[in-house]
Amino acid sequence: MPETGIPTRSPLTLILIALLVIVLPLGIGLFAAPRLVAQPKIGIIRLNYDIFSSTAYEVTEQLKYAQENDIKSVVLIINSPGGSAAFSEELYLAVLNARQHMPIVASIDLLAASGAYYMAAAANEIYAKPTSGVGSVGVIAFLPTGVFIEEDLLTTGPYKAFGGTRDGSVRQIERAKFAFLEAVAIGRGDRLKISLADLSRAEIYTGVQAWEYGLVDDLISTEEAIRRAAEMAGVRNYEVVELYPLTFGQGTNYFFGAYQPQPIDMHRLWQPPTDWPAGLYYRHVVPAGQ
After folding, report:
1. What pTM was computed for the model?
2. SS (HEC) of 74-87
3. Which helix H or strand E contains 108, and what residues bound it?
């Protein structure tokens, strides 16, 4: 046959060209895509120990960060006996507001008692472990001292120096208790299988009991609760991020570049309240001898 002047290529050359033109760009794209397109994030917020101004501030700031930075869902990991009534209510309202923007799941580890459960009641769903401590729906308060006259102290009202009467304080405590009960009733809705009268006994239930009473939705691990949060947000191939270091920057809780939450002090977690200023507190106190 006459020569056409068009050089011929070997099959090996054609295969190499195909690899360069098709396979190599495809491989580069698959490698670069996760780095160019960020994975959806599920945020972790940890509540450890008592609820006071500092812990309430940390949690509310992390919830704010989640809303402002396109976190798809938040999991609250709870190890807390409760604390101040006002700051527990602040956390409840903060979680209630955040769930308007994203699903919120509460996962109870060791304990979610009193004000800590109050906060959890605002979540879309609550999960626990079989032996978790759950409940203590009630209030502890320090009553004012009896009214007395101090000759060198001038006040513009008979209760200015005392805040009110002791029987008035009891009524305030009852109002706080019913507000707590109502929050649980609204948050759990038809899932609640225990009467408010029985719930007001302020007992701490095991995770199994809490599940039977409808105080939690299921008994699952924290990892499963995270997967449930992602499912509620409608995301797959997600990244789990700790919101504390993202919110407050790198601190002392870093170990080889990874965030490490502080270990839980069991004694501190279960110890009764001591040396607290007068006021209302959502806290369970273990009776003497138990």
Report:
1. 0.76
2. EEEEEEECEEEHHH
3. strand 104-113
Q: Which domain holds residue 109?
A: 39-251+259-283
Q: Is residue 30 part of a domain?
A: no
- Residues with pLDDT less than 50, the chain: 1, 33, 252, 254-257, 284-287, 290
User: Which two three-digit tokens encode residue 132?
Assistant: 């978790």
d(CA 31, CA 63): 32
Distances (CA, A) of 119 to 27, 205, 216: 47, 17, 13
Give the bridge partners for 265, in sequence order.
Answer: none
Determine the Cα angle at 265 with ends 261 and 266, to 5°.
130
How far is residue 131's CA from residue 147's CA, in Å, rounded to a whole number? 46
Q: Which of 90, 127, 89, 88 is nearest to 105 (CA)?
A: 127
Q: Are 107 and 207 in contact (CB under 8 A)?
A: no
* Tens of pLDDT, residues 217-236: 999 999 999 999 999 999 98
* Cα angle 56, 60, 61; round to 5: 115
Residue 139 has a pLDDT of 80
Residue 186 is assigned to a structural domain of this protein: yes
CATH code for position 95: 3.90.226.10
Examine residue 128 and state whether it is found in any structural domain, yes or no.
yes
Query: Is residue 17, in this structure, part of any structural domain at all?
Result: no
Q: What angle do CA 56, 57, 62 make, to 5 degrees?
A: 100
How many Å apart are CA 188 and CA 126, to the nearest integer?
9
The count of domains in the chain is 1
Q: Which amino acid is at 113?
A: A
Q: How far, in Å, CA of 46 to CA of 62, rounded?
A: 10
